[in-house]
Structure formats: C-alpha cells, structure tokens
Amino acid sequence: METQLDPMKDDLPLMANTSYMLVKHYILDLDVDFKSKVIEGVIVLFFETGSRYRKTSSTGKDDCQSQFDETCKMRASEPSHIPVTNVSACSFKTEYNDFAVCGKGEEDTSDKNGNYSNEEQASGISSSKDCCDIENHGNKDFLLVLDCCDLSVLKVEEVDVAAVSGIEKFTRSAKLTDVSKELENLRNQIIHELVTLPADRWKEQLYYFTRCSQAPGCGELLFTTGTWSLEIKKSGIQTPTDFPHAIRIWYKTKPEGRSVTWTTDQNGRPCVYTMGSPINNRALFPCQEPPVALSTWQASVRTAAGFVVLMSGENSAEPVQLQEGELYFL
C-alpha cells in the first residue's frame, strides 16, 4: 500500500529516476474542455541517459534497478486505456510550463471533434502486471519512473524518430538496416545528437523536435500508474541506455487534479490556469519534478472559440481556426 501524504503538510515524493534517464525536452498537444473540466491530449518526451547510469556503466556495475524495488512493492495500479483519436503535436518554443485559458465572452460548451474524453476502449496492455517481474536469466527489465498524480494515462508508445525525413544528419552513419537491435540503437543515437545540439542551432533543434513528435509509433510500452508515479518498461530492455529515448503518452487530467484550477475571472467568465501548486506539474502532465530535471518544452492548445490561451515563453501563440467554434493556439 502506498503512503498517503498531505501535500499541504508533507514533502512531495520525488519518484522520477532522473539519475538514470533525464528528460531534455517536452512537446504537449492538448485539448481543453470546460464542460467536463478536463485537459486531454498527448505528450512526447525526449530523454538523455542519466549521469549515474553512465558512471556505473563505465565501471562495469549494473545496479540500476536497486532504487526502484521499494517503489514496485508500494504501487497501486489503475486500469489503462487507449483513446480512439490520434493527436498531432505542433507548437512553439518556451522555457516555462504554466498556461491559462480565459473566456472572452459567453462560454462555448459545445462538444467538438477535438474533445474525446468519453470515447475510450480497453487496452490490450495489462497495467496490473508487475513491472519489476523477473525476466529471462533472472534479470529485471529497466523501469522508467515519472512523477504523475491525478492523471488518467491511456497509452504509452515508443516513437520511431528514424522515420523522419532528413533525420539521417543526426546519425554517425546514414546506413539503415532491418536489424531490430540496430534500429533501436539508431533511434536513441538520433535523440542523443538532437538534444545535445549547441545553443546556436536551437531553431534547427526545435524544427526536428517537432518533426520527431509527429513520427509514427513503433510499439506500445507496458505501464502502470500509482498514486504518485507512472512506471514504464519495454520487455527485454534492462538498461537505460537501451530504453527508448523518445516516448509518446496519451493521457487526460482529472477535474480534481491539484495542478489545474478551474474557476471564473473577475467578470464571472470561465477560465482555467495551471499554477502547478500544491503538487507542482505532475497533475498536468507526466514529468520529472526533481530540481535537476531542467528542460525545454513546447505546447499547442485547442479550445472552443471565445477563449484565449496565454502561456509564458519566448514566442507569441497565433490562434488558428480549425473549424467553426474551435481555435488552435500554436
């Protein structure tokens, strides 16, 4: 049984195993539904292998699972689902992660195509399977742990960044093979080269982050959710180095989620803002909360016409009308 904490009195548990895998960039593509008070969409995370594992690997040690054993024992699982609609990501560069959606006039509560919070079907992935099960030869699969609370996670998959046109420039060798293991290594090599680009190439980096976020999936990943964490694994993968470095997560917030506040403005019009308190951002999207996990991120937000999306960042969002009564802020 997981420990019950009071966020107003107790220190927040930092579950993310950042010393083994560290998020370097997030891309969010979200739908805001004021009728159900739910934010739903997709997040793509780009990782770099953490400093602790690089250090232990160089000395021949392989103890990366030890700190997760207690987490596995304490997990409380929820069912997992798959949404019936795919969402693509296209967004702008920013370094912060707070946003607000405010009504300009009367609230539009119509249910548009971008809102599919009630259209789910059961996933073939069993979230009750113990992610710390002993695998072949007595070894354990590597477990990626993210901070997560008050979220419904629907699906997790690996992103096939090698399918992006022009991405060969980020490989040491442009030769692609059909060997599965080599393709897995190639995908992670691409992400490593992309996240370590020098600062003066940030526009190129942003372009390829966006392109990679739109790449097809190449396999669903096993996952479980607990009170404070999302735990993900790929069968047969036992080290952070071999674990997928680009993953896509479908999820939705809950109306009671404590990272999101649904309220009205001074004129009585509906609005929502994401101050991140009192449990930081883990009830807005699966993330890494420890202070070491500094990253860049992008976001795009769909909402009903009559609302304005405001977000901190370097670029100004430009609203695009997708269809009558629906705006897309890029």
What is the typical, i.e. mean, pLDDT? 77
Gross morphology? globular
Percentage of helical residues? 10-25%
Run of helices and strands: EEHHEEEEEEHHEEEEEEEEEE
C-alpha termini separation: 42 Å
Structural class: mainly beta
Low-pLDDT sequence parts:
59-96, 105-138
**Cα radius of gyration in angstroms:** 20 Å
Largest sheet: 9 strands, mixed
Extended strand count? 18
Strand content: 25-35%
Q: What is the count of helical runs? A: 4
How would you describe the overall organization of this protein?
The chain is mainly beta and 330 residues long. It has helices at 51-58, 69-73, 180-195, 202-213; strands at 21-33, 38-49, 81-83, 92-94, 99-103, 120-122, 144-147, 151-159, 217-220, 222-225, 229-233, 246-253, 261-264, 270-273, 296-304, 307-311, 319-323, 326-329. The strands form four sheets. Strands 1, 2, 4, 8, 9, 12, 15, 17 and 18 form a nine-stranded mixed β-sheet that branches. A four-stranded antiparallel β-sheet has the order 13-14-5-16, with no helix packed on it. Strands 7-11-10 form a three-stranded antiparallel β-sheet, with no helix packed on it. Strand 17 and strand 18 (326-329) form a beta hairpin. Mean pLDDT is 77; it is low at 59-96 and 105-138.
